[in-house]
Amino acid sequence: MNQSVSHKDTKTRKLFNYSALFVSVWQKRILLWFAPLSFLIIFFFLPLSRILLLTFDISTFTRENLWIAINVLGFTFYQATLSTLLTLLLGLPAAYFFARYEFRGKSLLRALTAVPFMLPTVVVAAGFNALLGPRGLLHNLFPLFSFPFIGTLTAILVAHVFYNTTIIIRVVGNALSSLDPKMEQAARSLGADLFRVWWNVILPLLRPSLFASSVLVFLFDFTSFGVILLLGASRFSTLEVEIYLRILKLPNLSLAALLSITQLICTLIFSILYARLVSRSTVQIAPRSAKTNIRKPKLFREKIFVAFFIFILSSFFFLPLSALPFRSLFRLEADRGQRGDVQPGFTTDYYKELFVNRRGSVFYVPPIQATLNSLGYASATVGLSLILGFPAATALARPTRLEKILDPLIMLPLGSSAVMLGLGFIISYGAWLTSPFLVPVAHTLVALPFVIRTLQPAIASIPQRLRQAASLLGASPFQVWKTIDLPILRRATLAAGTFAFTISLGEFGATLLISRPEYPTIPVAIERFLSQPGGLNYGQAMAMATILMTLTVLSILLIERFRLPNSGEF
Amino acid sequence: MKRFLFLFVFLLASCTSQETATPQSTEPQTLTVMTHDSFAVSEAVVKSFEEANNAKIVFLQSGDAGAVLNKAILTKDAPLADLLFGVDNTFLSRALEADIFEAYDSPALQEISDEFKLDSSNRALPVDYGDVCINYDKAYFAEKNIAVPQDLEDLTNPEYTELLVVENPATSSTGLAFLLATIAHYGDGFTDYWSALKENGVVVVDGWETAYYTNFSGSSGHGPQPMVVSYGSSPAAEVVFAETPPDDAPTASIIGPDTCFRQIEFVGILKRTERRALAEKFVDFMLGKQFQEDMPLQMFVYPVNPTAALPEEFVKYAQIPEQPASLSPDEIAANRDRWIQEWTDIVLK
Lengths: 570, 349
Description:
The complex is a heterodimer of chains A (570) and B (349). By secondary structure, chain A is mostly helical. Chain A has 24 helices and two strands.
């Protein structure tokens, strides 16, 4: 049953009555799974199966519909694979760069890479357009070097890399900084070159986190919605986009149900593949302090590498985003008839205007209230997803037969269409829809797979003998968790918490649930400004987006500064 | 773990009990109004209704017009609200077919012109109207010394190559309205017209926000196209939402014959409501002068009630086409999917 227990552990195990252990293991499993599983059943499987049963119809299996499904699936798979590979191409060296080198402004740059993750797609599209669009910065600086961007596959791929690189940086970066540098040093002293060290030592050890982060990125790309719709200029369609269209625009609910089921089955297949791969590759290693791995660049080529990556990352992540604060502080209105030479003027009007309910609207969003609402929902999401994620990840890290079945199911919320699930919520929990309580629940559904997949490889890497030693010395299970798991898992927990926080902060969620205007969040406020014409509205949307960005960077910096008391430096 | 679980269950229970608690007789009655995300109204106007009727109004915003209607149809047997505002003439037939509304012959209807009353049995009552028109960037046309196109035909002329951005009718109601305008004008010949527009480099985006703020040159986004499918009232909004009041609107609408499509929005009392009397009062209120005069600057639409005075910005900068395109709701309902599919095959493939 406990496959990953090493030989040394059998000796300690003999001290227990074997059958008693077996029973207690099952009891423990039930205890671990009770909360996360109930949550998923109540808020995911039940509403989703109700809506699918209601809408699915066997007569949908016509040749025409299957052709639509296969075509869309083909493109969805194609763009997700390309996007994931490109994200790894940037993310892996970036993860190494962050995990190994110390330099000035590192935390800020790291926080910056997470910002896109929570920005509404409309805002990101505006940012890219200001940079690469036909009248963007690049075109103005180098007129010969401009190319069509919006509406191309390139735009979709770049946006996906922009959004998801942070996943690789965080998940793989964590694993990298916990690696024991002695292994590398040993390999080097035995004559292996850099390539062989990576190929034979580092990559095999990184495999679990590499698979975990890649499968998350892949699923996010696979179910991509806003990016495809906005940057694809209607020329491309993924399953998620097609489901949305078939539910809301060209109503054909049974085709939507067919597409939803296709998407769910694909997600299930990817998750099973992932579970297979990862179960073969987990190695238990004693974790090392992140500090022993981190140092300032010394050699010339290290300095070049670091400088190069600071340049690449800051321009890739900062330039498209910089358009937002710029446009929130500078007016671009030229005198009439002189459009050619636009002279930007500095203004704080947009920010001041945020605090004025000029038209006395019921739906006016006070910026401080929106910020507080966003922070409140985000904190609740972090709490809820960690409470549910920890026991699930603990169980998954030492899989029994039960976990083999449950493991792929955990990922399903990421692979289900938000619009479809939203309808399921409405028919199942219509009476509760007005409660603000459902908002963090919905955010947790998205955040939970991230939290579990971030914690799971970290928990799996903790040597079981450490725990058993503590148990033998009389520690209660909670004490074991507190003194062994928690300190080792601090980094992974922070990463998981950061994911949950940013997911909640950026989630628009209007398609998923019915929103009560009394509890607006920042993304809701941005959408509201952008839904009406006028310079002041645009400026205020940019100002609100800037507040969201600042808030994210500050929160991430704060979370990463956060140290658990008495945990010491690992 | 158990403690957390307990807390979780407790939270759940407390939330539900809050919702189901029966209000005492002295407490105001709560009326729930389901609307789309673009709905807006003044606090003062809502308050005056609440105070006069000892009521509390709760607005549920449920996505765009299509999403709201879908949600209302799905929850027909256990409605989430007492009233639904925001079904327009392109969706009207679907709402009536699904039978989600109760008829109400509001006395306020007497004042309203028959051209807006599309449902003869008054299950859906008209509240506002507006025209989807092509807006143009005045400065661009003045600077380049090009004439502004006057009708749909002009748009296929080579001098307007790559100057127009439209929304995909499959994803945007604005885009659908413009497609319907071309169908009202050309009939089945709309496919040839769109082939010509495509030939002339028409730009297609997913929705109004992208079209207006990313592609249109006359808005703050300073995009590449000087013409965009937007609303007849957008030029007025550009003035209202300017930082320093300009002496003229930066944009205007092309209001030739059939270049604009008229949208009418309706309100209806949802079947199975338990607060029918209060719901009736709210419908009367929405059609009354106070609410109707508040709408233009909140939602940038026109009042259907002719006694409601228009704000100055509307009189000056918003244009009403003399001959807006229109199609009957039944015709739209019967052909909408086919039209969108044909459009997609021509323009996007």
